[in-house]
From TrEMBL, chain A:
Residues of the JmjC domain: 279-416
Keywords linked to the UniProt accession: Iron, Metal-binding, Nucleus, Oxidoreductase
PANTHER family membership: BIFUNCTIONAL PEPTIDASE AND ARGINYL-HYDROXYLASE JMJD5, HYPOXIA-INDUCIBLE FACTOR 1 ALPHA INHIBITOR-RELATED
Entry protein name: JmjC domain-containing protein
Keyword Nucleus set for record: yes
One Gene Ontology MF term: histone H3K36 demethylase activity
InterPro entries reported in the protein's UniProt record: Cupin_8, JmjC_dom
Cofactor(s), by name: Fe(2+)
Location in or out of the cell: Nucleus
Entry GO CC: nucleus
Superkingdom of source: Eukaryota
Native source organism of the sequence: Tetragonisca angustula
Presence of the UniProt keyword rRNA-binding in the record: no
From TrEMBL, chain B:
Organism listed in the record: Tetragonisca angustula
Protein name: Uncharacterized protein
Gene3D superfamilies for the chain: Regulator of chromosome condensation 1/beta-lactamase-inhibitor protein II (2.130.10.30)
Stored SUPFAM superfamilies: RCC1/BLIP-II
Top-level taxonomic group: Eukaryota
RCC repeats: 182-233, 234-293
Pfam families the record matches: RCC1
Length: 416, 300
């Protein structure tokens, strides 16, 4: 096999083989084993090149397995989907990218020069990352592969981007009538955090704790984000609130999202919300660290926090809801306003009674309808403005409503 | 009768020099004599010859290309004669088969192993013997009995009193039932509108579809995330997921229709026509129906 096959040569084939043996559903395995086997032999034996006919037939089979697996992943409740089918989606993605590369390099063309194909392959990999699950013994294969390929795609930057956010430190300070401010700390010691915030479960604004993050300087320069993530596919929520009738989700490339929803006035709001972007694009992880405070736990849990990215234009709204875990909302750039209520106020907030939305309130704290929700007047609301470099601690089950006042990038850490 | 097949093929039914032909690009006769019926699984076919059942599947391979296995093999229930199958339900990696003597067997097709399904039906309380008459395998296995009860195997499904089901159909994650009196019930996932209850909620037990109350349904079909039914008036109703246009509703922009919707048939000049629908069949992403001739509606 020629040396131009970047993907095929970067796959740890024998480890992959163990995964195929042990973790793939049988009705998929019977179709995928021989394809994997033939590809592996071709890579080891540098002379033998699979025939174009074989490559095309194998692509048909892999596509069919991808489609069928997609159906299974989308049936029933996501949390009950057998993880084997998510492994299978990952495996099919890997095989498909190798085959696509082979089909192209079969004409001994340099495949990295074909930007369209490269982008296509990166998009396929991202779908594999989003829907699949990392294979047990080659966990970072897809993210690494995408990062490697991304280097070859030189995005023609036609956007003239300086810094996205104009500095407006003093614009956002006024607490609206009827709301109470929350407590503030400047770099609390570990002990202070534990005693006054974490143990008693008090929401708190913590200043200057993440001032040193590279992300604070780098990410507001959109050229940087585009070079790392421009071609990568991300899930975007369309519609101002997830409780709205016409709310939907779309898969877009990061640069499409930027151009369509962040940099231009758009009558619809697009929000990259609650996405594990840093599992997908590990390079971005180098620009921040997990706050040490996350080492305090409620049980004896030792798992790493769930890290999510929240990036969008001015005007994104997360309706009033609660999450089951401890939450650090960390502001990278832009400004947000957060309204909070104590868990004891739940009945005054009128949670939806449907399974899907029972952690979400029907009241809108910014436009309260006291006739419809009379008890809401009893609820005690807190308000805080979050600025770049600040952390908001939201205790488990505390209700929160989040509005971005400018284009904004936040990282949240959820832990038990 | 001859059977012809075209399209994507993952069984060993069609091959060329030992290599599987993945795309059968024109209708090709199924190379097996005496076929009386044909069932299509995602990665295998079942072929019926009267009450004999045969399977065509790709064998589990170790990465080597030895295809010495026969392309079509008989499925023989242990200790029974070959012609003792009366009904088969296609599953991902297994087939559930009803035998002539009303036993239920599960055949793991890739392991080539059999398991007799222990009798979960028991007695319905009265003296009449009860046994499964139809089985579907979607997200779960549902069995309908001759007495009109249904089981989410092996658990009895809670059905309203005096209701008898006479047919069952299912998609990826929902199940619908036709009751003796023409009412329609549905249960399972509702997130894609597939239950027809005018919301997106799930249902743990069969719930009557109110929108079809008073309308006598005669035939049902479901697949993927949608459902279609035919009434005694020859009307066709569809509901559920519409991303591929599978509901056949030209005027609907929406990708989800959570309530049974009457289909208005039109001719090539886009005029409404009167149509009597005889039968409907859903595929995972499409719907086929059989009708009488199209007649232009009389203008008043």
């Amino acid at each position: 096999m020629p040396n131009c096959t970047i993907i095929a040569n970067s796959i740890p084939w024998s480890l992959l083989g163990e995964n195929v043996q042990n973790y793939i559903p049988i009705e998929m395995k019977i179709h995928l084993t021989s394809i994997k086997h033939n590809l592996e032999t071709s890579v080891e034996d540098k002379i033998k090149f699979p025939s174009l006919k074989w490559i095309k037939n194998s692509l048909i089979v892999v596509e069919a397995c991808l489609d069928k697996t997609w159906e299974i992943l989308n049936s029933g409740h996501w949390q009950f989907v057998p993880v084997e089918y998510r492994y299978c989606y990952t495996l099919c993605t890997i095989l498909k990218t190798v085959l696509l590369e082979l089909r192209y390099s079969n004409n001994s063309k340099q495949f990295t020069e074909n930007t369209i194909l490269l982008k296509n392959i990166i998009q396929q990999i991202d779908k594999g990352i989003l829907l699949g699950a990392p294979l047990p013994n080659v966990t970072d294969l897809l993210p690494k592969l995408a990062s490697e390929l991304n280097i070859y795609v030189t995005e023609s930057l036609q956007l003239d981007l300086e810094e996205l956010i104009t500095d407006s430190k003093n614009l956002y300070n006024s607490i609206l009538p009827g709301f109470t401010e929350i407590v503030q700390y400047v770099i609390p010691s570990m002990e202070l955090f534990y005693k006054e915030i974490f143990m008693p479960k008090v929401p708190a604004l913590m200043k200057d704790c993440i001032k040193h993050w590279e992300a604070l300087k780098r990410w507001k320069n959109l050229k940087y984000l585009l070079s790392v993530a421009g071609n990568r596919i991300v899930p975007i929520e369309i519609g101002s609130r997830y409780t709205d009738e016409n709310w939907s989700q779309q898969l877009l490339s990061f640069s499409e999202f930027l151009q369509k929803y962040v940099l231009t006035e758009c009558d619809q709001v697009g929000y990259l919300a609650q996405h594990q972007l840093f599992e997908q694009i590990p390079e971005l992880k180098d620009d921040f660290t997990i706050p040490e405070y996350c080492n305090f736990t409620d049980g004896n849990n030792v798992e790493q926090p769930d890290i999510n990215a929240w990036f969008g234009p001015s005007g994104t709204v997360s309706p009033l809801h609660f999450d089951p875990k401890n939450n650090f909302l960390c502001q990278v750039f832009g400004y947000k306003r957060i309204i909070l209520y104590h868990p004891n106020d739940s009945s005054n907030l009128y949670p939806y009674d449907t399974k899907l939305l029972n952690n979400t309130a029907q009241v809108d704290p910014l436009n309260p309808d006291f006739e419809k929700w009379p008890n809401f007047s009893k609820a005690k609301g807190f308000m805080v403005y979050l600025k770049p470099g600040e952390i908001l601690y939201i205790p488990p089950k505390w209700w929160h409503h989040v509005t971005s006042l400018t284009p904004s990038f936040s990282i949240s850490f959820w832990w038990d | 009768m001859l059977f012809h097949y075209a399209g994507f093929n993952v069984s060993t039914l069609f091959s060329n020099d030992g290599d599987i032909t993945y795309i059968v690009d024109s209708f090709t006769e199924v190379p097996f004599p005496g076929i009386t019926d044909f069932q299509i699984g995602w990665s295998y076919f079942l072929v019926w010859k009267g009450r004999q059942l045969y399977i065509s599947k790709k064998p589990e391979d170790s990465g080597h290309n030895d295809t010495d296995t026969q392309s079509v093999q008989p499925i023989r229930i242990p200790e029974k004669s070959l012609d003792s199958c009366k009904h088969a339900a296609i599953g991902k990696d297994n087939v559930v088969i009803l035998s002539n003597d009303n036993e239920m067997w599960q055949y793991k097709i890739y392991e080539d192993t059999w398991k007799k399904v222990i009798n979960f039906i028991g007695s319905g309380g009265d003296s009449e013997k009860e046994y499964a008459v139809k089985i579907i395998q979607g997200g779960c296995t549902v069995a309908l009995t001759n007495l009109g009860r249904a089981f989410n195997v092996p658990t009895l499904i809670d059905i309203p009193k005096r209701v008898r089901f006479i047919d069952v159909a299912g998609g990826f994650d929902h199940t619908i039932f036709l009751a003796e009196n023409g009412d329609i019930y549905s249960m399972g996932m509702g997130t894609r509108g597939q239950l027809g209850h005018n919301d997106l909620e799930d249902c743990d037990n069969p719930r009557i579809i109110d929108a079809l109350a008073g309308i006598k349904v005669t035939q049902i079909s479901a697949a993927g995330w949608h459902t279609a039914v035919v009434t005694d008036q020859g009307d066709l109703y569809t509901w559920g997921w519409n991303v591929n246009g599978e509901l056949g509703l030209t005027s609907q922009e929406s990708k989800v229709i959570a309530v049974p919707t009457l289909i208005d048939f039109t001719n090539d000049r886009n005029e409404s026509v009167q149509v009597s629908v005889k039968k409907v069949q859903c595929g995972n992403t499409f719907t086929v129906c059989m009708t009488g001739t199209l007649k232009k509606k009389k203008k008043r």
